[in-house]
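Lab notebook, bench 4. The sequencing result for the construct came back, and we need a structural model before the next group meeting so we can plan mutations. Quick request posted to the team channel:

Model the 3D structure of this chain.
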Amino acid sequence: MINIKNIISRFSNISKPQKKFLAKFLSILSFFSGKANIKNLCRYGKIARRTAYRQIQKSFAFNLLNYEILKSQGILNHRLVAAMDCSFLKKTGNHTENIGYFYDSEREKAEKGLELSGLALIDLDQHTAYALDSKLSPGSQGKRERISNIKTLHFERTRSVQVKGKLKEIHVKTTRTNAYIHSTCPECHREIAFTTCQFCEKLESKIDFFLTQLKENIHILNEVTHHLVVDGFYAKKKFINGSHDLGLDVITKLRVDANLKYLAEISHQEGRRGAPRKYDGKFDTSD
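Done. Here's the predicted structure in C-alpha cell form:
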C-alpha cells in the first residue's frame, strides 16, 4: 500500500497547506471513477472549490513524487530503461493553452488538439512501464495568426482589350488577399515564418522542447538507467547529440530515407585540388 501522505511530507520546499491538499487530492484521484475534474473531485473529498483552484495553480515537482513512489516500492532495483513518446488528445476549444495541430496516429493526419510528451521507466523484469513525467507540447497558433494577418491589397492596372476591331486600354481594379503565417522571435522581436528564427536562431523548436524535458529529469534518469528508447521521429541529429551530451544512449529506429554515409579514411590526396573528401559512399542497410 502506497502512503501518499508520508511521501509528500518529505518535500521540504512546499508549504504545509499544499502538502495537506496534495495528499488528500491524490488519494481521491487514485480511486475516483468518472470525469476527474476539480468540481467533481471536490465533491468527493469535501474540499472547498476555491481552495482547490488556488492550490492546483501552484507548481509542484510531480516527477520527483513519481520517483519517490517507485523508490518506496523497490522498483528502482529492477532492470529499467527510459522511454519517451507523445500522445494525442483531441480538443476543439479555441482558448485552451498549448492547443494546436498535431499528428494523430489513429487517423494518420494532423488534427486539432493537445499533444502530451510522456517520459516513463520501462521495467524489463515485470514487463510494464511506470510514468515519470509528462508535459504538454507547445501548440501552434497558426490558424489564429493566419486569420489575424490577412492583408487585402487593392491596386489598379491597365489592360488592353479589343473592342470592335480596335485595341482599347481600360483600367481594371483588382483585389488580392495575401494570407500568411508568422511568429515573433522572443529574442530579436522580428517577424519570422519558420520554427527557428533565421536572424538569431533563438526560437525553441520541438526537438528543443523534448531535450529540455530530458534535462529536467536527467538527475533522476542517471540514477536508474543510461538508455533511452524512442521511435523514429526522434532519430534526428540534434536530438541524438543532445541526449548523448546528457549521458544517455539512444535506442531508436531510423527512417527509411535516412541518409547514412561512411566517413572517408583518406581525408586528402596529394596532387588533387579542392577540399578534402569527407565521405566515402552511402551505407547500404540491405548489405
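Confidence is low (pLDDT under 50) at residues 141-153, 174-183, 191-203.
Will bring this to the meeting.
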